[in-house]
Amino acid sequence: MLILAIDSATPVAGVALLNEEKLIKEEFSNYKKTHSETLMVMVDRVLRECQCTIGQVDAFAVTIGPGSFTGLRIGLAAVKGLSMATGKPVTGVSTLDTLAYNLWGSDALVCPLLDARKQEVYCGFYDVTDAVPYALSENLACSPAEFTAKARDMAREKKKDCIILLGDGYYPYADFFQQQLGNSLQIPPPHLMLPRAAALGSLGLKKAHKGEFEDIFKLRPVYIRLSEAEYRLGRGEL
Amino acid sequence: MGIETSCDETAAAVVKNGKEILSNVINSQINIHSQFGGVVPEVASRQHIENIGPVVDAAFREAGLAYSDIDAVAVTNRPGLIGALLVGLSFAKSFAYALQRPLLAVNHLEGHIYANFLEHSDIEFPAVCLVVSGGHTSLLYMSSIGEYELIGQTRDDAAGEAFDKVARFLGLGYPGGPAIQKAAEKGKPGRVVLPRVYLDRNDFEFSFSGLKTASMNQWNKLKRKGSADVNDLAAEFQAALVEVLVEKTMQAAAKYKVRSILMAGGVAANQELRNLMKNRGQDIGLLVHYPSLSLCTDNAAMIAGNAYISYIRGNFAPLNVNAYPGLLSL
Ligand SMILES: [Zn+2]
Questions:
Q1: Residue B227 pLDDT exceeds 90
Q2: Which of A143, A184, B16, B276 pairs with A127 at a CA distance of 20 to 30 A?
Q3: Which alpha helices (H) appear in B120-175, and where do they start and end?
Q4: Is the minimum CB–CB distance between A84 and chain B shorter than 8 Å?
Q5: Chain B residues with CB inside 8 Å of A233's CB?
């Protein structure tokens, strides 16, 4: 099975091509160009350099959130177009699952974090000792302080000595996390810090083997948050 | 095939040779946005990503075609709500790429203007075109099809925006254009007096914020006096706005010695505007064209139609083409 993975959930744009368990090519870009400009160019380059056409791809994998609302929609719209035109299915993978998979095999409490703006992070708590990351709680949006409190409780409960933070949500609050989590905190090196399309592709492949595909007409991002207007309407402010 | 997601309509259409509409599917979000009193960009984008697949598929089914039957994919890439545009553009790009068909990027306003050419083959040039919608109020000089020169535009609110704001203030609901037109039918212009804001008589700039403020002030004053008739005020507001649009267009038609007058955009669906423009055009011996009501508001048939010009000229969009909230050219 040939799987094409497309990630534009965060400032990172990533595309990877996998043939079963074998990673053939991966492109990663964390440069300031917009996903709208880069993503399909990357897809085209990855396929061409692997002497492969879009028609040969058996399934697509995409990060479905959380992440930047616009970034997620660019990725989802792209796989919708590819899937409809080729008739090949799509697997959707959580952005936080994808990040956690970077640390496969670690016995630490793995906590992927995305910058959610408004002084919040999107976060998850994972055990990654198994074949695929196991989420110990729901993905959520919360303040850095709520996050560290939860992380400490979770580490105690799951008897984890070490807490690993990764993802772009770490950087804005690095000092705060250091101060709150102290010696139990570890930060991975740069090549493991951000979402990798290769990790997305291998998780997507596992889902594809199990036949876990998305309904392409209904597929929408996992935003976690309501839009500002819906939130205010719900509170009776509109 | 054309795709349009610049505002609050997810639309897809199949058009043959820039002329024959084989399908024209529009999924409107008006009911969703009306609870917010106007279009909310993030809400619109969320609707687009859910609607885009089914809407595109419906356009093919209605046309009785398979995806691979089309020759090119056209999409609006400016101007509009950036997050909304990006959904349509990203979809169109990958869809075209996978089908190995060229991609054509279309300016939304050119699409609106092209709606005229979908229905009329007898439009003579040069022409002057009034583009009026919720986002734009512009006068354009057209030397031929696809050749535009901006000769004037609004300095503040677009005409459609003024309709929306005044309708909301008067409690007539959203969208404002149809709401005010309906109220105006039951009222009479002239019972309340509102200004006609022409600015400089010699240029083609518009301003509607003064009319908007005057309407609100009048309304408050009338309510205090206990003699407020919302229908009369709606009728006078509509008359004042329409008169300025028509007279400025007539001045432009005279100055540029055009052979036809065109209208385009959502506000071109206003019956008062259509009637007055047609009558005043007749007075000076010029044919006035405007699209049928369903092609005035946002749709993808006008996008697919307009793209035919680029298709013939070989102006294909590269894979890195982006979306832009503003106008760039025009
Ligand atoms: Zn429009």
A1: no
A2: A143
A3: 159-169
A4: yes
A5: 35-36
Question: Across-strand partners of A187?
Answer: none
Question: For all residues of chain B together, what is the average pLDDT?
Answer: 95
Q: How confident is the model at residue B329 (pLDDT cuts 50, 70, 90)?
A: low
Q: How far is the CA of B291 from the centre of ligand 1 (A)?
A: 13
CA atoms within 13 A on the CB side of A12: 28
Question: Which pLDDT band, with edges at 50, 70 and 90, does A237 fall under?
Answer: confident
* Partner residues linked to A61 by β-bridges: A5, A91
Give the domains, in start order, of chain B with CATH numbers. 2-112+295-313 (3.30.420.40), 125-258 (3.30.420.40)
pLDDT at B327: 72
pTM given for the model: 0.95
Decide if A201 contacts A3 (C-beta within 8 A).
yes
- How far is residue B61 CA from its own chain's centroid? 27
What ipTM is given for this predicted complex?
A: 0.97
Question: Nearest CA to B4 among B129, B97, B109?
Answer: B109
- What CATH number has the domain spanning A3-95+195-234? 3.30.420.40
Q: Is B140 exposed, middle or buried (0-12, 13-18, 19+ CB in 10 A)?
A: buried
Decide if A227 and B50 are in contact by the 8 Å CB cutoff: no
β pairing state of A140-142 and A121-123: antiparallel
B175: cis peptide before it, omega within 30°?
yes
State which amino acid sits at residue B219.
W
* Helix (H) or strand (E) run with residue A108 in it: none
User: Is residue B118 a contact partner of residue B305, using CB atoms and an 8 Å limit?
Assistant: yes
Residue B180 tokens, joined: 């005010």
Q: At what angle do helices A69-86 and A35-49 cross, to 10 degrees?
A: 40
Q: CA B30 to CA A61: how far, in whole Å?
A: 33
| Ligand 1 center to B173 CA (angstroms) | 20
CB atoms within 10 A of CB B151: 18
For residue B101, give the amino acid letter: R
Query: Hey, what amino acid is at B106?
Result: V
- Local structure of B264: helix, strand or coil: strand
Distance separating alpha carbons of residues B198 and B204, to the nearest angstrom: 9
Assigned token pair, B49: 């990503």
Paired sense of beta strands A90-94 and A140-142, if any: unpaired
| Beta-strand relationship, A163-166 and A185-186 | parallel
Cα–Cα distance between A73 and A67 in angstroms, integer? 10
> For A163-238, where are the E strands, in sequence order?
163-166, 185-186
- Residue B226 C-beta-side C-alpha neighbours within 13 Å: 0
How is chain A split into domains, by residue range? 3-95+195-234, 96-193
Q: What is the CATH number of domain A96-193?
A: 3.30.420.40
